[in-house]
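Board notes (copied after class):
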Amino acid sequence: MAARVFLGLGSNLAAPESQLKQAFDALASLPDSQVLAHSSLYFSKPLGPQDQPDYVNAAVLLSTSLSPTALLDACQSLEQQQGRERLRHWGERTLDIDILLYDELELTSERLILPHPQAHLRDFVLLPLQELQADLVLHNQGLTHWLGQCPSFVYHSRKLD
């Protein structure tokens, strides 16, 4: 049976909008998976070091039969294919894909924590999620609750062409 999975995507290097569009296409070609929807693009200030370009973020709703670990491996492979280098914590990147929610699964392993432990603290995650499913619950609260609690990084959004 397929799981409903929400992914968060971000990029701030090498034509970020193109990086995200390429990632949407790549996610659609994952085995046993289907992209059900993706959000608009959200432009935000960096969360980490400020000496890097601004980010473009989005969310994807995916239906998949891949296990959480297999999906993580596939997402990390896509990041590598698009030139991801891990130079510093919260640093610049061509592509970052985070698994935010995997159905109602709660998981803590060495490689993966579900739901994503910091998603509720970031408006550049919450706003795209809200666009995809306004009544979504994250960490036992609705997205509107969390949006009222977190700092604002997003300064613009735009539908894809």
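Comment from the instructor: Strands lie at 3-11, 33-38, 41-44, 55-64, 96-102, 107-108, 113-114, 137-138, 141-142, 154-158. The first strand starts at residue 3 and ends at 11.
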